[in-house]
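hey so u asked for the seq, here:
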Amino acid sequence: MFSLGIVVLAVAFAAVRFGPPRTKMQATNLYLFATGDVVGCSVDDVLSPLDADLYEAGAAIMNDVRPIESDGALVKTTSPAGEFWTPANNDALTLLAERAVDVYAVGDAPVRQGDVVMDLGANVGFFSRRAFEAGASMVIAVEPSPLNIESLKRNFAEEIAAETFILVPKAVWNEPGTMMLKLYDLSVLDSLVMEHRDEAAASSEVPVELVTIDSIIEELALDRLDFIKMDIEGAEREALQGAPETLRRFRPRMAIAAENLPDDVEVVPSVVRSIVPDYQVHNGRCRAIAKGVLRPEVLEFLPGAETAQAAR
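ran it, structure tokens below
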């Protein structure tokens, strides 16, 4: 008599070979769920794959995304989400698909009207733009990659002039200093700590200044911080170690990437709760982050009072 595992694998194999894209992605995740390294992902996650939504979102807009201007290093692209500058080697369609799906929106912690938002790992500003659209009164964007910094200056020229968009051209860490930032052909992969990326080749390294989240708050003399989005390619745990006063004082809602390192889903919540023990953690949707490894894309953090209020 066949075991359930063998049946699952047989169904998954058939779906991968013969099914449409969504079915293939469901089957791939089902196979990983049965045989791979899975933490923080349920069967429901497997059957509602984030990758499938991203694929379909990209397919829906691909004919409306095209470059309209270039200065060599940067390209200006028009899209259903508007016009924006991005490094020439970036995959604009993937960035737009992530914006359309809103990968950082997990559940009860969206950006709200009047929020002061910190966008850590701002890239070229797609999350920052969405935050403004949701009613944010100010966005502090932290980004160390040189071409991304130039893109942000162009994409948010009006907001910079109005002092509602504060650009911090540095990297966040657990202490001040300098480190080498490894640059990849796709600038969304630039990282302080991840030396090898399957998606693109490394191109060079540049020294970048390190700051802590606490020092940014102090330098800007902020009296509130409502929301933190953090996606900094494997340096999330170190950045949080540099934010104890910020988390204790403001208790911001947070959406933090968990797909960069396999143990992020366990280590990042541990770091947060070592600072503020009553933060509640909710897993976002799952995807394959490496061969045989299934993890949540994002973790949502709500402080205790927020969790109680959301439940009422």
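Confidence is low (pLDDT under 50) at residues 1-18, 307-312. The radius of gyration is 20 Å.
lmk if thats what u needed
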